[in-house]
Amino acid sequence: MAGPRRPTPETANTTNVFLLIKENPDGHSITRPTPFIPTIPASPPTSKDLPLNPTNHTHLRLHLPHHPPPPQTKLPIIIYFHGGGFLIFGSSTAFYHAPCARMASAIPAIVVSVDHRLSPESRLPAAYEDAVEAIDWVFSGADPWVAEHGDLGRCFLMGCSSGGNIAYHAARRAVAERGLKGVVFNQPFFGGEERTESEERMCDDAMLPLKVIDMAWRLSLPEGANRDHQFANPMKAKGEGEEVLPACMVRGHAGDPLIDRQKELARWLGKGRAARVVERFYEDGSHAVEIFDEGMASRLVEDVKDFVLGC
Fold it and tell me: Which segments constitute the Alpha/beta hydrolase fold-3 domain (predicted)?
């Protein structure tokens, strides 16, 4: 299936789904551009959907390798958090379903993709709470796929864009109780009141302009909070980083307005806040480039595979 086309400066107003979001008059909800977001149903026996918390309407999509492992073979588990600025997308979104299925087969691994609550209807920390609930669900061993094939001693968190932010805050909350093996931050979404050089230089980026960055934080942070809140800018918050995270990989691309913050995160984690830090920063590419470029999608899967198998 052909992937979506990356917005350009000329087409952004009609092709960038973030610019098609409509804020509703009630001030507490948005209208999402659902017709513009392709989805893929689960396809047993290699993927299936399960409820996480019916009260919160959260779900999980589990992925197994296309070639099931032999009996008694235990696979690493990757708990995956999708991007979307905390506002849109889910585990069935085509360009998040596809890499999860691909990683499950390539590594191989069990991939648990989390449908968390979305902002602004459920502002942060709702998504972090859902993430921890998903981690607890995995470690409960309640699902036969996880019980039969999952190695709880090799459980990783992974997030793309805002999902990387969720992975960080979920790891901090869960690391003391759960033996997480590692965390993958793919172009993680963090912020701050003071603009970085890359944000200013790429303020009109077709994929992630500053107006989209600011909208995402305004609609997802607790009401009244600014971008230096600990959810957006943990590097500046007092008391952050006291829990030592397991091995971490931080990925980024030079054409991403958030690249400076991603490099800052890697340096910050490297100061004793993680067991070790693997950096994968590339001079080519842009924010969410793996959605639009098959070669970049393959590179992401290979990086994750190398990290997971190397831990």
Answer: 78-288
> What gap in Å lies between CA 253 and CA 186, rounded to an integer?
10
91, 92, 161, 198: the catalytic one is 161
Q: Which of 143, 256, 260, 286 is catalytic?
A: 256
Choice among 63, 82, 149, 287 that is catalytic: 287
Q: What is the pLDDT of residues 121-151, one digit of tens each?
A: 999 999 999 999 999 999 999 999 999 999 9
Prediction pTM value: 0.96
Assess whether 169 carries a catalytic annotation: no
Pairing of strands 22-23, 30-31: antiparallel
Residue 286 annotated to the active site: no
161: annotated active-site residue: yes
